[in-house]
Amino acid sequence: MPKEHEDLGVELGQLWDAGHRDLPAVTAVLTSARSDLTRAPRAWESAFRRPVEFGTGHHGKVYTALSRMNDVMVTILRDSAENLNLAAEALLLAAEVYADTDERAARELAAHKIDLSGHGIEARG
Fold first, then answer.
1. What pTM value is reported for the model?
2. Angle made by CA atoms 99, 102, 103, in degrees to the nearest 5
């Protein structure tokens, strides 16, 4: 049986929470990890520097492989963060649009947002 009014308003609130708070929190972790990985190759420079007499290049084969893997991980984390941001925006939009179809559910969602603002959480979307 389809949900309506209070039940729907509560579920819209949970949907809105996911887009407003939960997914952005995960995005922040991914962005932080990406930032750390972006700085990592500079830290490896001296650790992987090899004498020219070894004939394996300035940093050797391990450094090259590790740098390539690092680049792949940076790209994955960047893309994942971007996709989560888009998903969060979509969840916020879905909650708002769906609330527009049910006036009582809309009131429940608005009350949920007001309740959050009372806890120092700024409502976006």
1. 0.70
2. 95
Contacts of 33 (CB under 8 A, 6+ apart): 77
Token pair, residue 73, equals 């991980």
Distance between CA atoms of residues 104 and 115, nearest Å: 16
Report pLDDT digits (tens) over 44-97.
877 777 777 776 667 777 888 888 999 999 999 999 999 999 999 999 998 888
- Written as one letter, the residue type at 68 is R
Task: Tell me how far apart the alpha carbons of residues 60 and 44 are, in angstroms, rounded to a whole number.
Answer: 12
123: its two tokens:
């409502």
DSSP 77-111: HHHHHHHHHHHHHHHHHHHHHHHHH-HHHHHHHHH
Residues 89-115: pLDDT tens digits? Answer: 999 998 888 878 777 777 777 787 777
